[in-house]
Amino acid sequence: MLVDQDDVELSVIVPMYNEEQNIDYLFERLIAALNPLKIKYEIVCVNDGSKDNTLKCLIEHHRRNPAIKVVNLSRNFGKEIALTAGIDYAIGAAVIPIDADLQDPPELIAELIAKWREGYDVVYATRRSRQGESWLKRLTAKMFYQTIERMSPVPIPRNTGDFRLLDRRVVDTLKQLPEHNRFMKGLFAWVGFNQTSILYDRPQRYRGVTKWNYWRLWNFALDGITSFSFVPLKVWSYFGLTLSLLSFLYASFLIIRTLILGIDIPGYASLMVTVLFLGGVQLLSLGIIGEYLGRVYEQVKGRPLYLVRECYGFSSESFNQPAQNIIQVQKN
Ligand code: UDP
Ligand code: MG
Question: Engineered SS bond to 124: which of 164, 190, 195, 198, CB 3.0-4.6 Å?
Fold first, then answer.
């Protein structure tokens, strides 16, 4: 059964990776929060290659409630890409990405919509506090936001996840950004438009465990920094320049001293220190160039961002995303 696709006002996008334990409660809370708003909505769930019963549960929910739609990706592509797929499939006049683990309270949607009706294009929800997260996670998150704030020419709001409302204008702009490295928080900020924020206390994950270990978070941070700043690339020119000046001064000192005092054999320690230091700096700077180069390569290959195995609940007209991303479309 298909719902009338024309006048969907709100699309809620939920990327899901192994979230079977959260699905029932998520829909219960979401629908309880959405129904009183009296708007026509759809819930676009993107199954990001889950290994548990997430897809089965989603299809069951879709059968009972056609407003729940399912996009099943061909494998796990990561949250940023899953979100991109959801944004491509959503047709609402406003779009809200939300986590499946209920860390983004659905009750806030009413507030987001109210701000949107006031005329804002982007309403983001900023965390006033984070519950149930270790001091290490909070510290690293803080360091990350501070670093990216200093490096990025566009301000990326602190303590703000992907939970936000995006107007159709913003969504259409986002869909035109061809980049592979999709650091969504940055892209949402980059597009600009009229932005405002609301505050909330971020609760703990309802069930299950986070999929973001520190290694994944570190790479996420690298993605963010490399896609929004050239500072790590440029800093080496200045560093090299300073080092060359210092070496010139030191070389002059050595030459003059040798001329005056004659050849002085000891010098092993200073030689070793210089060689090792310079070797280290060169490798580090090469590594950083490598980080950028790898991402350039990724982009140049031009592979589709994601592949869809099948989807449930979409009319064929609503496939307004690049056709290359669909392997097989199963209407339901
Ligand atoms: N997620 C996803 N693909 C992934 C990892 C996570 O779609 O590879 C989804 C996940 O199901 C959840 C959201 O992204 O809905 C946030 O993930 P998580 O709660 O693990 O992250 P955290 O809240 O710890 O940052
Ligand atoms: Mg979470």
Answer: 164
pLDDT tens-digit series, residues 4-54: 556 888 999 999 999 888 899 999 999 999 988 888 899 999 999 999 899
Distance from C-alpha of 163 to C-alpha of 170, rounded to nearest angstrom? 15
Half-sphere exposure of 108 (CA within 13 A, CB side): 24
Indicate the pTM of the whole model.
Answer: 0.77
Query: Beta 160-167 vs 122-130: how paired, if at all?
Result: antiparallel
CA–centroid distance, residue 19 to ligand 1 (Å): 9
**Separation between Cα atoms, residue 322 and residue 43, nearest integer Å:** 21
H or E stretch including 62? helix 54-64
Given the CA of residue 17, which atom of ligand 1 is nearest to it?
11
On whether the CB atoms of residues 165 and 284 are closer than 8 A, the answer is no
Count of beta carbons in the 10 Å neighbourhood of residue 101: 22
Tell me the angle at which helices 20-34 and 109-117 cross, rounded to the nearest 10 degrees.
Answer: 40
> Which atom belonging to ligand 1 lies closest to the Cα atom of 16?
11
